[in-house]
Write a structure and sequence with these properties.
The chain has 2 helices and 33 strands. The chain is mainly beta. The strands form 8 sheets. It has a 6-stranded antiparallel β-sheet with strand order 3-4-32-31-30-29, with no helix packed on it. Strands 12, 13, 14, 15 and 16 form a 5-stranded antiparallel β-sheet that branches. A hairpin with a 5-residue loop joins strand 8 and strand 9. The longest helix has 10 residues.
């Protein structure tokens, strides 16, 4: 069982301020709203914001080392202007909310003091969703940008809301309710659609999208039911032996938009044609080949990597990574079950929980974050060689619990969402795989060309409930490259 640490943060840079205060409880399977929050931490600069149902105060604090220069005496690489968007899942109003924290990436990556811009999702977003759907969104979870990064897409896992934002103005422009749970909403590369993993609804859905006119329509005819019916081979799509729990976790689109790999909570995997109506299965895998709860998916040089993780009752611990050769999918579909074959690249045992993924070293290496082990697994993408792990636990954070990852534009650092003391999603309370001691954003310096790294900075996010308990719980994270002036 993962030990639960009290917050431990080494002093470092100047304190920053701004954030949101609230309460909440729930998990990936049945998230619920909580009570509104109380005041921020004493001694920090605070900003008070009135919302429709409560007043919230939010605070962030900086810790860890400052940024480093280039390796081996080389001149430091200068990062281009960019933002880092971090999602705090904890409530800011009694019926949901949450917050987005937007950091200046040039400041964050270089070790300089930074104050994030904070969007309280219990304000304009809540109002828009109430107007458009009649219900309030709960538990913001995963965030993606469309191809030109003009729009942000945020899914709410305790409800079925998907919210679209104008990324430049931060204004929410549309809210759609897809049903039980929108775990992840991923845009297709061509910008014509968003594929939604409706987790407990056990549905894969498509929102037809026009990111120029901000027109978004849930296409009911495209929906595929993952709990009933058969696969192309004639097997039951959900089967006690093959695929016992077909709650979709994360859709991962290939760069050409022809394939979407859909990970499943109970193990197994489905490869979908995102353009067909309804969505159709091209390849099917069972849990003997692909383990449960995958979420980290990345593509490089014609390969697509997908991991498997823990955090559920059935699978508290898991850490595997698979590699698919995308050229193998150019044959005649649908394919025979468990083909094209996936290569097992990483296979860890013990108290492990793989989740986020990122490319470093100009794509030479893939990183996979382990929440339970506080480590990063490194894969050589040219050979699929497992290069082992490096730990990010230490003086900056004793128990960072790295979750989702994204790489800075110049590749000097990887940003990590660090989980909280009271995880609201993907945590098995019997083992506390997702419990961390420093909820916030971690800055991991890329070393040895991507073969290693070091957690050198943490920007804490604080959200205290009415009892004064820390409930901040970051999860979604994404880098946005700013347009040239």
């Amino acid at each position: 069982m993962k030990q639960r640490f009290l917050p431990l943060v080494a002093p470092l840079l100047a304190s920053a301020a701004v954030l949101s205060l609230a309460a909440g409880c729930g998990d990936d399977t049945e998230g619920t709203g909580g009570a509104g929050g109380s005041g921020g931490q004493g001694g920090a600069t605070t900003t008070t914001t009135s919302t429709t149902t409560t007043t919230t105060t939010t605070t962030t604090t900086s810790s860890g080392q400052g940024g480093q220069g280039g390796e081996g005496g080389a001149a430091p690489i200068v990062e281009p202007p960019h933002e880092v968007w971090l999602i705090d899942q904890s409530n800011t109003v009694t019926d949901g909310g949450g917050s987005i924290h937007i950091y200046d990436g040039e400041l964050l990556s270089s070790g300089r003091a930074v104050t994030p811009e904070v969007i309280d999702l219990g304000d304009q977003v809540r109002s828009l969703c109430l107007t458009n759907t009649g219900t309030a969104p709960v538990r913001p979870h995963m965030l993606f940008f469309n191809a030109d990064q003009s729009r942000a897409i945020l899914s709410f896992v305790a409800t079925g809301h998907v919210v679209f934002f104008d990324a430049a103005t931060r204004a929410p422009v549309e809210c759609i309710d897809v049903g039980l749970q929108a775990h992840a909403a991923v845009p297709t590369p061509d910008g014509t659609a968003v594929i939604v993993a409706n987790q407990n609804g056990k549905l894969l859905q498509r929102i037809d999208a026009d990111f120029v006119t901000d027109t978004y329509v849930l296409d009911a005819a495209a929906t595929i039911d993952l709990a009933t019916g058969q696969t192309p081979s004639g097997a039951d799509i959900q089967d006690a032996t093959l695929r016992p729990d077909n709650a979709p976790i994360c859709p991962v689109a290939s760069s050409d938009g022809s394939l979407v790999f859909v990970t499943l909570r109970g193990g197994g995997l489905l490869v979908i044609d995102p353009t067909s109506t309804p969505l159709s299965i091209l390849a099917e895998y069972d849990r003997s080949v692909i383990a449960a709860n995958g979420c980290g998916g990345i593509e490089v040089d014609g390969k697509l990597y997908i991991n498997a993780g823990g955090g559920t009752t059935a699978t508290p611990y898991e850490n595997k990574v698979y590699a698919f050769d995308l050229a193998d999918f150019s044959g005649s579909a649908p394919f025979t079950p468990n083909t094209p074959a996936a290569a097992l690249v990483v296979d860890r045992s013990g108290q492990v929980d793989s989740h986020g993924a990122a490319l470093v070293g100009d794509g030479a290496y893939a990183w996979f974050a382990d929440r339970a082990d506080n480590s990063i697994a490194v894969v050589d993408t040219a050979t699929n060689a497992d290069l082992g792990d490096f730990s990010i636990a230490g003086a900056t954070s004793a128990d960072p619990a790295p979750d989702l990852l994204d790489t800075s534009p110049a590749g000097t650092v990887v940003y990590a969402a660090l989980r909280g003391l009271k995880p609201l999603t993907a945590n098995n309370p019997n083992v506390n795989n997702a419990v961390g001691d420093s909820p916030g954003i971690g800055v991991i310096r890329v070393l040895q060309g991507g073969q290693s790294g070091q957690l050198e900075r943490v920007e804490l996010v604080s959200n205290l409930d009415s009892n004064g308990d820390e409930i901040a719980d970051p999860h979604g994270i994404r880098v946005r490259l700013l347009p040239s002036p």
